[in-house]
Specification:
Blueprint lengths: L8 H32 L6 H20 L27
Helix pairs in contact: 1-2
Length: about 90
């Protein structure tokens, strides 16, 4: 059982990251399994409607929760960022 009284934002972001990872893995598995299942299940079967809904749900979970990700504070008022994080971002003047 999860003790909700001690949950922090970091804990919630960690759970969101795990859900995104799981949803992405399931979606990739479903995508690859489609060709194999098509051998045994006819194209017009009602199974494919359910299959598509599950695959789209996994895509939605992965896409919508991925924006949360694992973010860390790069800049504060006391210590502002004064240099680029990577060469592709350019330089701050």
């Amino acid at each position: 059982m999860i003790d909700f009284s001690h949950l922090t934002v970091t804990d919630l972001l960690n759970w969101a990251t795990r859900i995104v990872t799981g949803a992405t893995a399931v979606r990739i598995g479903l995508h690859w399994a489609r060709q194999g299942l098509a051998i045994w299940i006819e194209p017009g079967a009602s199974f494919w409607s359910f299959y598509d809904k599950v695959e789209l749900t996994m895509a939605y979970l992965a896409g919508s929760l991925a924006a949360l990700g694992r973010k860390k504070i790069e800049s504060t008022i006391e210590e502002p960022v004064t240099r680029a994080a990577s060469p592709s971002e350019g330089k701050i003047k």
